[in-house]
Specification:
The chain is an all-alpha fold and 269 residues long. The chain is built from ten helices and no strands. Helix 2 packs parallel to helix 7, helix 3 packs parallel to helix 6 and helix 4 packs antiparallel against helix 6. The longest helix has 32 residues.
Length: 269
Amino acid sequence: MAALLESGWKYLITHFSDFQLACIGSFILHESVFFLSGLPFVFLERAGWLSKYKIQAKTNTAGSQGRCIAKLLMYHFSVNLPLMLLSYPVFQFMGMRSSLPLPSWRVVSTQILFYFILEDFVFYWGHRILHSKWLYKHVHSIHHEFATPFGLTSEYAHPAEILFLGFATIVGPAMTGPHLFTLWLWMVVRVLETVEAHCGYHFPWSPSNFLPLYGGSDFHDYHHRLLYTKSGNYSSTFVYMDWIFGTDKGYRKLKALKNNEFEAEVKQQ
């Protein structure tokens, strides 16, 4: 496996420049992972398949889904791509490299864990700020147009929010200057995580059923169902920040109520 990865990486760095890989390559990778992981939830909702795992009974219209996709493409090319181009000198200055050998899995996993923890901390406070009255009305309300989220709505947001919360995603790599391979892997897992959190479905195989402290779709779906003044569950990945600062009390009360109702139904059977 390691030899195959190194062979493929050697081909990339032989045929493309660092700039091409870090900017254009990163953009292509992001778009591919984002749409390939998010589009299936559009079709699931339209077809009504696996509806027993859907968190909310309400569904989005085909028109609203299409509008979401059109705006996403516009934002990605007008905001995300320029951001990648402009951030390249920063990453280069901090020591990002693309040359062989590839970093060890120990280094990669340690850095990505650090990125997740830092991103979650920065995102939590940034997200709480976006739920202040003025910023919610003029910026964050765009993301909340979809009270019933589906995978692609994870990146549906005002351009200012894309820059504001996007900082949470890139601050870790910008600080450490990782190998480009680590940066790409971080991008992939981060995109998959946020798409899963917004997918609108809670499956038996959902990561939150197996990973301690992981929020996931059920945790974040609750956030989208509420008005901004009564919201909570601000974290992006984990649940401990909301638990520490008491911003998940409504969610925990609802879960306890549902568990009590389920236990009562079981006893009656």
